[in-house]
## 1
Amino acid sequence: MILNLNGIWKMKCTDENNWYKANVPGTVFNDLLNNGVIDDPFYRDNEIKALEIAAKDYEYKREFYIDKELLNHKRLVLCCKGLDTLAEIRINDKPVGRTKNMHRTYEFDIKEYVHEGENTIHIIFESSLEYVRKKNEENPLWGAEDAVKGFPHIRKGHCTFGWDWGPQIPDLGIWRDIFIRGYSFGKLDDVYITQKHEEGKVGLLIKADIENFCGELLDLEVTVTSPDGEVIASKTKTKDNKNHIYLDIENPKLWWPNGYGEQPLYTVEVKLKNKDVELDSKKFRIGLRTIKINRQRDEWGESFEFVVNGKDIFAMGANYIPEDSILARCSRERTEYLIKSCVEANFNTIRVWGGGIYPEDYFFDLCDEYGLIVWQDFMFACAIYEVTDEFIENVEEEAIDNIKRIRHHACLGLWCGNNEIESGWFYWDFERKARHKTGYIKLFEIVLPELVKKYDPNNFYWPSSPSSGGGFENPDDENTGDVHYWDVWHGLKPFTYYRNFKFRFVSEFGFQSFPSEKTIESFTLPEDRNIFSYVMERHQKNGAANGKILYYLSETFKYPKDFSSLIYVSQLLQAEAIKYGVEHWRRNRGRCMGAIYWQLNDCWPVASWSSIDYYGRWKALHYFARKFFAPVLLSVNDEGTQVEFHVTNETMENVKGSVVWKLRNVKEEILKEGKVSFEIAPLMAKKLKTLDFKDVLSSYNDKMETYLEYRLYTEKGIESEGTLLFVKPKHFLLKDPEIKAEITEKEDRYLISLTSKALAKYVELNIEGEDIIFMDNYFDLVPGNEKVIEVEKDIFTSVKDIESLKDNLKIRSLFDTVEQM
Ligand code: BMA
């Protein structure tokens, strides 16, 4: 029996007398905002006030009614799925317990504290901010520079203290479900399901631990429902805590990551009963699959690749950070939008980065459903910890809670100890305190791997990202394990540098851009709209980043004429940079087996490495991702006047088709053209052809006015296409493309058909007053190739008819970013 305590509570700052209405689950910042007590911390420079607010203590309370039936249970347990972070729980004014880790689930026996009728629960939160400040004075610990000093002292999502893309808003509150549960006869303590894959069947072993309070024989029932609704069941009588139940699934339907097959899910329900009365139950949705990391010595070093159901997967995706600095505002809908956006951009993998939180159950449900492999970090990043026995004990509980919660998901690809701490010790040698280094080894190379082995033995543990396997052995080694490659961007190396490395698996590399103008408008006044203004700089957390954007801009594009153009070209730079890396690594499929860029999303409106901004708006990079992660990719490796065509086939089928290319000039004459037929086996990359245009591109001037257009056709139509310039875009003699858009209606859709008179680079469509994801955007338009963009009518909010669509459709391309003389 459950008494849900979610819902309306009261909250106040402990220094004040005024109580406000609060929502649980929720957080202090969210409640204060809803009550109009504080200003939106995301607006202009309001973030500065956040630290004052977070420096105080807060109190939550509510009444709850306990009836006879609930009270009569042998055990009453208060279950707190998430308290952020330092909380004291009181029932009817008596202390019930304390918490110190936002990542843990806490349970308290409360039978002795409650009575029949009205009861009161109080939860008092001590400021995490003040706590880490104080602790750090006593014992300074190194942590990422953009966060509040001392954050490694507390088990709370690190980036809530700030990061190089995140504000400092160390919020507090009852951030996950809270309820009371009564048990009388027994309880299902733990259920663990393992799969044995054999020819034509999968055997399920269900281990159920029960707690028996009554000493009688209880019934344990297991039901497995297939994706088509077929039911297989098994039943046993038990008194003991350890139970094993076997079930065979014949003709199993296997789960695959996105792009390789379907995502069928089976439901496993385990029930504990006493003479037909259900005492407890647990429900899991599992996918039948094997997933391994293949690490094999080879001619280059050691491979690092996901192998799903025996097939090697080239991991394509991005790094995921918390979706909102005010966690109360996260929702399944928002996460689904994001995960869908990943799949729409052909992702098959997502990395949950260690500086945030272990995501909600629905995050993993969605990754199961949409087919994203999850690289799951434990929540440790860029920090040194004081690894005391107490700290280890706390972390062990956290790890067990989360391993048990997440381990059954089909999407779970691997567990990783932390983000960038092993490499931190290796490259920066941190503070050289021996005990901290020993603590590191204990935590990430002994304690966590042992826990994974014990509670989730079939999933892989990797000590750190990046790593070559641990022990501070060259963690960022090009030829072993995963790497974070930041010389392009942090190291100001040109995009071409990506091509110097054939990493085994790139789990981070990134490039910043500004969010869209609509997003900038949400936090600025018109006078702030200059990237060096005080307000814009407050929404740029990486100190040197604006300078870097401008540096790369100077290398690539002409000086943009205004703010709007600068925002737009910043996104183009980002998209081109990441494309450059990904295409190169996909061309080297086999040696390199993963390209996970930094970062997918934002937790507030900010300039950052994200491809989707805080409001869910796709930057140019996300549209590019859809193309550079296309299952069948045509990419071009160019060197001077030479071009190589490469095809990468990330599908499970043989692909046949042809590549059609044209070498054109700005007068739109075709200088050369050709066609190459190809056939490529599943899951491989190959070079199709090398061409040399040195006869027509003998001078720099020739290169300034010549471009290559290429397209890959299969029986499905055009699957991959692009254009290639032989000089940097700033030197290319772009002509006015005079883009023409014709809009027609076809049933429930508008068709926007676009043509141009000259090459148009990075054509951007935008409909004023609307937020729309187009089927394509930031594409090149070549004269003679009509591009038709279809838009469903019912996605519009303000556009009512074709005329208003015409009025509000704004189109620009690179040509428009500079003043024309
Ligand atoms: C990485 C991440 C983050 C950081 C990003 C950009 O290495 O792990 O810590 O936000 O770089 O600097």
## 2
Amino acid sequence: MGATIYVNGRITGEDEAVVPVLDHGFLFGEGVYEVMRTYGRKPFLYGRHMDRMRRSAAMIDLAVPFTAEYLLGEIEKTADRFYEAQGEAGAGMEMYVRVLLTRGVGAINYDVRSCPAPTVVIIVKPQVDPPAEAYEQGVRVILVPVVRNHPNSINPLIKSNNLLNNALAWQEAKRQGGFEAIMRNYRGEISECSQSNLFVVKDGRVTTPPLEAGLLAGITRAFVFECGESAAVPVREATLHDADLFGADEVFLTSTTREIVPIVRIDERTVGTGTPGPVTRQLLAEFRRRTPEGL
Ligand code: PDD
């Protein structure tokens, strides 16, 4: 079943959803986005996603033309249409909700004054979880040569529609049969994955690179710190290098649509015992225990 899409207030099926080619989001990748998923048909950690969207938009000097409350109403309208279109197949289905905000239509130049009105898009489609084997057996990822954007180039803190850096990294990992791509920053330190954040576990302590390493401030990443606190698992930020990855007892990735996925192989090397480890399992259990609390 396809997506239901809202474009500046018009809600249609995916075949009819269109944005003008002179939209600077299309021409230049000028825009920001958020991906949320629902639990119980409600976007999880909605306020945090909206705060991040506001921060991303500010970093490209783009005004957000809605309040979080107003946008939630528009998401709910789109969701209603989505479930209508799904019919019986929608029972028990959770949603993937992608909100895009672009500079809007203007002249073919970089002058922001030529774009009087931003474009707002909401894409609602079924949330597809990673396969059960990913959680039970863990996944293999690839440490790719594609370098994460320098913070003075396109700052990875901006959740930008300009995703070429991420796409090239992921495509390289895919070519090598990996589930995800791990990227280093311009200093050669570990930063994050193409669509997720990265954590390592050593001697029971969990570590993830600091924001200063050039990465997205993942909503799930922050939530994992909270899960660690409630599960009495120490989670901290520290600079990581290749050796920390390959010498780790456990490694896992986090994202909105994937929660916490254990990594058991990096390139051709096995991580720890080659099976999802106890700390990763404990954090995932705590994460899932807490998800309804965020509603
Ligand atoms: N990706 N890093 C990058 C580069 C990402 O694109 C994402 C999210 C994350 C994880 O952030 P969060 O926990 O807030 O989802 C980290 C989303 C899911 C996507 O682009 O589909």
## 3
Amino acid sequence: MTCIFCKIANGEISTELLYSDDKVAAFRDIRPQAPLHILVVPKAHVDSLWELDDPELAGALLHAVTVIARAEGLARGYRVIVNTGSDGGQEVPHLHLHLIGGTALGAMLPKH
Ligand code: 5GP
Ligand code: ZN
């Protein structure tokens, strides 16, 4: 198994998990883009949102985001981003939801 997020989510690489249940794990992004930047991932490998065919897992991932956001006190708001595929700017080929917050975030997308 070479996938870095598989290793983190399943405890092969020691990383503090901010959330863990039978299907989902969450940990801090190594290069945070905001005061709070957490990655929420399935424990079983899925390449990207394009390959996600399990509505129960989709719900579990989104529900984990809500649980974490509440635990982190993000009542003022936050943003969830799922970069998908090459046009989507996905760098790590294991599905992950970015939970970003802790400050007032700017425009959603670059203008062009
Ligand atoms: P993507 O561009 O694929 O949506 O985002 C990948 C994210 O994973 C980036 O924000 C990057 O900083 C983060 N990342 C890459 N490698 C690691 C790692 O080994 N550990 C952690 N915690 N985050 C990582
Ligand atoms: Zn993986």
